[in-house]
Amino acid sequence: xxxxxxxxxxxxxxxxxxxxxxxxxxxxxxxxxxxxxxxxxx
Length: 42
Description:
mainly alpha, 0% strand
C-alpha cells in the first residue's frame, strides 16, 4: 500500500514537472517571438 502511494506521488510530481517545463517552453517561445517582432519593427 505504501509503495503504491509513493509511486503515485512520484508520478504526480513527474506530471507536474512536465507541465511546468511545457509552460516554460511556451513562455520562452512567446517572448523570443515577441522580441523578434520588435526587432523587425525597429
